[in-house]
Amino acid sequence: MFHKILKILFALSVLSLTQNCGYQPLLSGKYQKFSISNFSITGDKKLGQTLANKFNKVESAKNILTLNINASKKRDVSNKSATGAATEYNLKINFDIEVISNLDGKSVFSKTFSENSSFKASTLHVDTLNREKKIIQDIIGTITNELTRQLNLIYN
Q1: What does pTM read for this prediction?
Q2: Nearest-angstrom CA–CA distance, 42 and 32
Q3: What does the pLDDT average to over 51-71?
Q4: pLDDT for the residue 142
Q5: Beta carbons of 33 and 62 less than 8 angstroms apart
């Protein structure tokens, strides 16, 4: 009986020590050491501005950055019905992004993000446009997360 109680107390003490280790993820926004202050958008301005709006300014950041965005969107009909009406579209979105440090004017990061997605056309044109907008928002969210992660890795 005494051994069982001792084993349980040992297991509880080990568990409590590992639970209070203070782990916090390094790539969270709380530890972000950069802030993007300026945006230069070329190409599809609406698409580029949507991406720029996803970034929040961090007041305590030491590294101030400028983001050069060249955005493009291409929507093609990928499938047609027997009558010639579009039944499925293919959407390709490209972002050429260059990050420049405001401190020394040097390029910190440069990458091309390209995403493809297809969606079915609806009988109502408004529903088709709403599907396209939703896909664009999802792609921009994915690219924003990837870019933030890359910059957190550079500055941490």
Answers
A1: 0.76
A2: 27
A3: 85
A4: 93
A5: yes
